[in-house]
Amino acid sequence: MRKSIKLIVATLLLLSTQLASADPGQPNFMAALYGDGQVWGTKGTTSIPAPRGGNLQSFDKLYVITNFNDPDAVQLPVSEAAPGNPAYNGGRWYLHNVAWTAAGFLAYGGFAPVLKSAGEIEFNASQGYLEITPVEVFFQCPLLPVK
User: Fold this and answer.
1) What's the pTM?
2) Which of 146, 90, 88 is nearest to 117 (CA)?
3) Which range of residues forms the domain containing residue 12?
């Protein structure tokens, strides 16, 4: 239990530094996350209540990789979908922690690659290289083109 609370706190801190640090409502057109293989900016985040009933599908997963280890690369959070993708839900997010496993580090020679799409995350998870843990955190944060 204590470990899961520490993981949630660490994830929220990581997310707050990785996503736009702009004031709520102020656009940030700097690279903030990957979606469908592209970088996207965003707006300040707003927490929203957890879904009730069967509407979890109205949220996209936002993956935050917590143990990326390449000092020469930057791993941004990865969205399940982005604008232009018919599955994109307009920036309503359900947070997921992602951690590389020992097998994943071994498979990639000790340094994990930068992941840029949900497809890459799903593939690596299917190989046993990633552990994905949903976190009961929901928020709204639309994606914006990087300028």
Assistant:
1) 0.83
2) 88
3) 2-145
